[in-house]
Amino acid sequence: MAERKPVCMVEAINLALHRAMADDPDVVVLGEDVGPNGGVFRATVGLHERFGFRRVMDTPLAETLITGIAVGMAAQGLKPVAEIQFMGFIYAGMEHLVSHASRLRSRTRGRLSCPMVMRTPHGGGIHAPEHHGESTEALLAHVPGLRVVVPSSPRRAYGLLLAAIADPDPVIFLEPSRLYRSVQQVVEDDGQALPLDTCFTLREGKDLTLVSWGAALKETLEAASRLAEEGIDCEVIDVATLKPLDGDTILASVGKTGRCVIVHEAARSYGPGAEIAALVQEQLFYSLHAPVQRVTGFDCVIPYARQEMAYLPDVDSICEAGRQTMRGNDQ
Amino acid sequence: MKQFKLPDLGEGLQEAEIVEWHVKAGDEVAVDQLLVSVETAKAIVEVPSPQAGVISRCFGASGDLLHVGEPLVEFEGEGEDSGTVVGNLGHASGTSDLAADDFIIGAAPSSRDARPLPVMPAARELARRLGVELGQLEGSGPGGLVTVADVQAADTQPTAGEALRSVRRTMAKNMSRAHAEVVPVTIVEDADLHQWDAGARDPMVRLARAIARACQAEPALNVGFDGARLSITRHQHIDLGVAVDTPDGLFVPVLRDVGNRDAEDLRQGLARLRADVLNRSIPPRELMGATITLSNYGTLFGRYASPVIMPPQVAIIGAGVIREQAVAHQGQVAVHPILPVSLTVDHRAVTGGEAARFLKALVEDLQAAE
Amino acid sequence: MPLSVPISYTRYLDDHGQPSGELPGWVDDPQLLLDFHRQMTLVRAFDQKCVALQRTGQIGTYASTLGQEAIGTALGRAMTEADVLIPYYRDTATQLQRGVAMQDILAYWGGDERGSAWTAPGALEDFPICVPIATQACHACGVASAFRIRQQPRVAVTTCGDGATSKGDFLESLNLAGVWQLPVVFVVNNNQWAISVPRSLQSAAPTLAHKALAAGIPGEQVDGNDVLAVYDRISIAIERARAGKGPTLVECVTYRLGDHTTSDDASRYRDADELSEAWKHEPIGRLQRFLHGQGLWDEEKEQQLQRDLGERINAAVEAFRSLPEADPGAAFDHLFAELPERYRQQRDELLIRAAALGGSAHG
């Protein structure tokens, strides 16, 4: 039955989970509070009632364990979708993600594999206590064998989550908590997945390419509107899958515009923006009109709620970077 | 249903008695609109609405006691259950482009069709300055790369005037650079030469000696100044740059160690430098290393000037045409030969006092008979 | 305050091969006992061969099972082909018993991923050797969860050392197994040493089996050098799990007669007297004496066995040595189910670098 009323991202994620579990008996959900409580963000609402404890499991409070048992379940051919309550708590599971999930296929030469999904709220700006606003996707994107996906709208969350669940390899699905309820959109519950490993072009333009992902896209799109009023026509790329990165789309866009500004919430140094900037300058050095710029979070510990918004890239900073890029060497 | 609970009314007061409701169920209220008067132990307090909305319920009646944290009013609304969430999830407010229906999977059509021209970044910058259209160019570099040479070759703009070459070109560049760095201050004075032997009109040697004496009196003007590092190098010797005007342009050969040479030596040295310059046989080494410079335009025309200091020097002396002038001398009007002297210093490194003292010593030595 | 909960300890044969108490009924099957003996002898001979190959630079660092032949053999035998093994790294005996080929084990320790891509039909879903300590316990709980979700009568069996029982992964796994009543058996190979850290510094728990109590699951000890005891108690635990009665922790008490790995020199931290004392309890001699006593074994059979095993082992070593060069591109071919196009260039570069090294990947 198609859903017609607009839904927010969390609801779209819920739709995708219901859909995936109904279509494939091997899909199971596990995590803390995912059962009768429906998840602390209500992402798993209704699943327990519909599919029972056998397939929707409340685990003890143990992130290392949650990640580890997902590996074991996946090796047996189940498709576990494990929820980690906040990205700030994913670190306890890093050993299993890095040492096992990412390499099970490779180290058994395909005899075993790990089709698991790990979902977790990502990023700051929701005035939560410390540790509840992490953007450390770079730590995961660096690991060979892991996919890292960040949706930016209800429809893309639906389609990308379906794709992640169906994918035969491990996917870390980072859900921008700042976008969980702030954007509504009609999402067709048609079971159609969107492609992984692919960027999306949200706005076509000829002067300047803005590259971003997750919640930072909200400010990036606003900046594009504002710059349009100043006569700067921006193209906006949603990276969506950080790893493996769809370099082709980014390069096609920057090849056309000759100018690139990357926006991300994650801290500046060794952030994913550095990888994209390296790729762009490597492949498009002779097409660039100006250096690639990054507008990012800072290299300091992310401030508590009161000062958190100053840490995040804002529309003004993105616009200023855009203008500077257009000016080039003219000071 | 969104409930607004009785807030902390301050000063540790934990409860309040409802005095009078200003709103009722069904009313639409604005932010800050007064909802109710309550009485605490200390005073009657008005409680404003924290949000705009429609009241669906008021808790309690006049005379009822409410504790801080108990529900006060309930607003109509979606009653969204956003979970046991820490933090504050923004709720949908208007449209965002993130909810736009259209998005392209992968690259936009115009990006896919783009065929960027490979251009050396330096060439691109040059093309911009020269106003050369890149699109028309065929690059001579690998893979059709457009190079600086390609841009220069394509520069068909007729030059307004003739391009500077050689010495004048160097002068243009050096003066620009100096102007960008130096902070010049000029002080002038007249040297009264009436004590000189009549007929002695070539002041060059006397000027060289006077400058040497002034450097000894005020060594602050005979230093090298590094503007980037903000450091001073005190020179052991006084190597005087002497500006020489030639048909080819301005040259500034260096008369070495003027502080330790006698007048005859200086005169011969000057003559040799001038000859070498005019012959264009002066080695480049002899044009370098001046610690202070003299520009004697008095051989041409003019009185006072503020010549340009070449870093790392910090001072330059200008000497104008010697003229006969009526002056006051011992209470009488007399006609004396007057040599106008200008001193320009770089105020980043030299103070006004140092400049004045230097100039005084210079002029006094110049004015002496011998 | 020390716990005074009793933990059972099972032993059927003493050091001299004499029964200590009543033997379980299945001991009457001579073939099973002869199989145990033959297999344990194979394990020891092969294990020594592995150490020798490391010492001659033909394989890399290797973790010897010297003294623990009974545990792996017994537990491997107690499992069915439908069950799944999630081992740690001192499981040569277990892997061999499960049917993994000797040359595959050599390939793994020799630095070739193909060593974990075995085709042994009884071990197709077994996990490979696990290096990050105790993480395999979580995987075992995941495997057991899958059995429960699919309502399959299968059991996950996982092994670990005494050191691993200190790690969070182990404790979290016991806890989950208990609260979800998972069909999993935790076999702890307590060989008294975690590299150089002795059991006395590892935990204040009176036995490692006591850790089961905190998880609300049964825990027991067996004499890890008595193959009869290990086989008996693990079989019972496996059948209990298969019947839906939940997990068990079986602590096999033994002694690590070799070094931690071939990179270790235990004489630096271990007393020579303690070691020679431990040799008196070792498992193969014990069973052999029992078999002699039953008239099932003699010196001639022993010589023949050694010859047969020698041939088999040499054949395996030859097979390992003549393994064709691995395709360097395999690292990319098995990165994901399908290699994304953009990695093809990196794959090509890897092949170029490998070719530049020229000749053997064994360096």
What this model shows, in words?
The complex is a heterotrimer of chains A (331), B (370) and C (363). With 331 residues, chain A is of the alpha/beta class. Chain A is 37% helix and 19% strand. Chain A has 12 helices and 14 strands. In chain A, helix 8 crosses helix 12 (315-327). The relative contact order of chain A is 0.12. Helices cover 23% and strands 27% of the residues of chain B. Chain B has helices spanning 109-113, 121-130, 148-154, 166-181, 204-217, 263-279, 352-367, and strands spanning 2-5, 15-21, 28-29, 34-39, 44-48, 53-58, 65-67, 71-75, 104-105, 184-192, 223-226, 231-234, 240-242, 244-246, 249-251, 254-255, 292-296, 315-319, 323-329, 332-346. In chain B, the strands form 5 sheets. In chain B, strands 10, 13, 16, 17, 18, 19 and 20 form a 7-stranded mixed beta sheet that branches. Chain B has a 4-stranded antiparallel beta sheet with strand order 1-8-6-3, with no helix packed on it. A 4-stranded antiparallel beta sheet of chain B has the order 5-4-2-7, with no helix packed on it. Chain B is elongated and about 115 Å long. Chain C has 2 domains: 9-321, Thiamin diphosphate (ThDP)-binding fold, Pyr/PP domains (Rossmann fold), CATH 3.40.50; 327-363, no CATH class. Chain C has helices at 30-55, 69-78, 92-97, 102-109, 135-150, 168-180, 199-202, 211-215, 227-242, 272-279, 283-293, 299-321, 330-333, 344-357, and strands spanning 9-10, 84-86, 156-161, 184-190, 193-194, 197-198, 219-223, 248-253. In chain C, helix 1 runs antiparallel to helix 11 and helix 2 packs parallel to helix 9 (227-242). The model of chain C has no long low-confidence stretch (mean pLDDT 95). The interface between A and B is large, with 63 and 41 residues.
